[in-house]
Amino acid sequence: MEDDSASTKKGMILPFVPLSVTFDNIKYSVDMPQEMKGQGVQEDRLELLKSISGSFRPGVLTALMGVSGAGKTTLMDVLAGRKTGGYIEGDIRISGYPKKQETFARVSGYCEQNDIHSPQVTVYESLLFSAWLRLPKDVDSNKRKIFIEEVMELVELKPLRNALVGLPGVNGLSTEQRKRLTIAVELVANPSIIFMDEPTSGLDARAAAIVMRTVRNTVDTGRTVVCTIHQPSIDIFEAFDELFLMKRGGEEIYAGPLGHNSSELIKYFEEIQGVSKIKDGYNPATWMLEVTTISQEQILGVDFSDIYKKSELYQFFFTGIIALLLGTIFWDLGSKVYTSQDLLNAMGSMYSAVLFIGVMNCTSVQPVVAVERTVFYRERAAGMYSAFPYAFGQVVIELPYALAQDILYAVIVYSMIGFEWTVAKFFWYLFFGYFTLLYFTFYGMMTVGLTPNYHIAAIVSAAFYAIWNLFSGFVIPRPKVPIWWRWYCWICPVAWTLYGLVVSQYGDIMTEMDDKRTVKVFVEDYFDFKHSWLGWVAAVVVAFGVLFATLFAFAIMKLNFQKR
């Protein structure tokens, strides 16, 4: 089992299940303070977190950072279920399942910034007491004691097992040793997810390094560990694998890998026009916080939150989150074809997986193309280039990006949903996923090209999302659509994507279902999907991408919405 291997690689006697945390559109607000109302503020609520999305993964050490007032501890408290007041909105899932606090508390630990321990007990007694109360009752006394010994070795507390905890700053353990004890008290509960609030706060460089070595050991067991941290040293900062960065006001401005010597982080911010380059030997964490302040935003005339949400990094990050989310929701549905309902469930998983990312691509490309079109009007007027090479470049640049996105998405979703692993079937899944992402992207570009601004384009495209969904063949199979509306099924691009996905995965399976029909016969009878049409279906899906790209190019060349 995966959980056994995750634990035993560090010699831990008690197994645990590695869990991921995904969160989407998290908002947190409190009642508006009376002082602010007295200053003329009209709103009833003060929003502290604004539409935060992200994920934390097993075996990955994530730093949650931001200036004071950014909301990093607030976000961690919301995710951990520690907020007792205020208003929380959004979706939090644990490995794909909706978070329920009563069960989440049993698989998570929370290391507070203030190390609060009973001063009159020893280190071993502190751990034994926590283990007694928090481990499942089926863990016998011998296993419990062995596990406590393993945890003490993991956090390097064995030499201090009989030391009194004592009072902070008076006697007993040092501040750094108390930090490690705080981590150990949570670890003996055998959690899968651990939140740490500024574990290196108040420590000198040597003590902080010891604590971070303990944190790293914890991550290496396969657990999900998230730490809030404030202005770390270079060595401490580079101990982290990923960064989730927030700005004042509760908005995310970076979520992704740090890279070797923080190279990925530095590359991302240095590519933003106007951001000063980092000096040799300068702390990347300090530089990052300096160049992303509110005052820097005002000087540069940018919003780092908007830049991040329009970036390729965000799209790939979001793609990975959605892939993991859908993969866990539709876990192993693809291998179950015993009943017609099984097949419909599998079909729903394919449909949802591709449609979700397709719509996201369409909506995210529209504001970018709208801004670029304004630049194009100016540069064309200056005689720098004509319309066709501009349109051609806009189309071609999407091809490799969509391919990388499709491969990332397909590998995660295909394996987790449990479709049949053959070269041909996986190729067709990649093929239809890729060209569906392309025609959604080109459709978004086309709607911008044909309308005055991206706000109108968004309204137009949203209307067609609903129509496409209705005629896709998923809500109502094509044979059951009234004859006077059936023609639209043949010109609905999503219907052809669904056709291709279903017949490529199930159109040739001769396994008998519970009603004695084979899967192939059911697909033909119920959906009128024929495996022999697979090549034609593939050609039509490609044709939709070509059509939308051509219409975008035509709009760029022939229409001009610039007002002077």
Please report which band the strand proportion falls in: under 5%, 5-15%, 15-25%, 25-35%, 35-45% or over 45%: 5-15%
Radius of gyration: 27 Å
Number of helices: 23
CATH superfamily of the largest domain: P-loop containing nucleotide triphosphate hydrolases
Q: Per CATH, what is the topology of the largest domain?
A: Rossmann fold
Physical arrangement of strands within the biggest beta sheet: 6-7-8-3-9-10
Q: Report the end-to-end length measured between terminal Cα atoms.
A: 67 Å
User: What's the CATH architecture of the largest domain?
Assistant: 3-Layer(aba) Sandwich
Overall outline: globular
Which residues form runs of ≥5 with pLDDT under 50?
Answer: 1-11
What is the count of β-strands?
10
User: How much helicity do the residues have?
Assistant: 40-55%
Largest sheet: 6 strands, mixed
Q: What is the highest CATH level, the class of the largest domain?
A: Alpha Beta
Number of structural units classed as domains = 2
SS content category: alpha/beta
Mean pLDDT: 84
Function: May be a general defense protein.
Organism: Zea mays
GO molecular function, one term: ATP hydrolysis activity
InterPro entries: AAA+_ATPase, ABC2_TM, ABC_transporter-like_ATP-bd, ABCG_PDR_2, P-loop_NTPase
